[in-house]
Amino acid sequence: MLINPYVEIPLRALFAYLALLLFTRVNGREQISQLTYFEYVVGITIGSIAATLTTTLEDPFWPGLLGMAVWTILPILTGWLVLKSVPIRKIIEGEPIVVVQNGKIDEEALTRQRTNFDDFMLMLRKKDIFNISDVEYAIFERNGTLSVQKKSQLNPVTPADLNLSTPYRGLPTTLVQDGVIIDNRLQEVSLSKDWLLQKLQAEHGVSDISQVSIAQLDTSGNLYVDLLNDEPEHK
């Protein structure tokens, strides 16, 4: 039975979209900067199949969906092999390449990476390094990013270098978000709603919790509050 293309195309798009959403969730989350070139190509291929399923009406939908599923499952299997086997990991993902060691540039390593000095200096400048003599080690990671270790004498002084103790600073706890009190977060820090409402009223003049955009409590006991539609201070 023929279906009106103006009906079939939206239906195909909907099913392809839902399938693509499901398959990407199954594949897991990974930042774009962490993708290998092969993973990037696989992602484009899966997206191309979804687009073809949507608009190529002469091709049956479900076999195409099966093909997209296969393209999704194969990277999962490959990822499992990479996780379990070091030799396979080296073959598929490669190894980090040291291009600067003990302050000396390895020109052959740069050549293997197909990277010229101009591109290498650009990568260093992005890390606020303008002088190669400041670099102790530089490593091209498997995802193409450059990791750099400066020479130790150029590192900033830390409290540990001076044998100074520092107070603990953990993550702040969000107690209010979009005008709603987050009860389980209050319980985590052993505080009550009454304490929070009194604190908001006394220190920030908040009479209605819906006025609060976000309220966070840091590990020192300081409460940061941002109100909805408040005007920024001009200095």
From TrEMBL:
One Pfam family hit: DUF421
Transmembrane intervals: 6-23, 35-55, 61-83
UniProt main location, coarse: membrane
GO CC entries: plasma membrane
Domain of life: Bacteria
Residue intervals of the YetF C-terminal domain: 84-217
InterPro entries: DUF421, UPF0702_alpha/beta_dom_sf
Membrane topology classification: Multi-pass membrane protein
Record's subcellular location: Cell membrane
Keywords assigned: Cell membrane, Membrane, Transmembrane, Transmembrane helix
Family designation: Belongs to the UPF0702 family.
Protein name as catalogued: YetF C-terminal domain-containing protein
Taxonomic lineage from the root: Bacteria, Bacillati, Bacillota, Clostridia, Eubacteriales
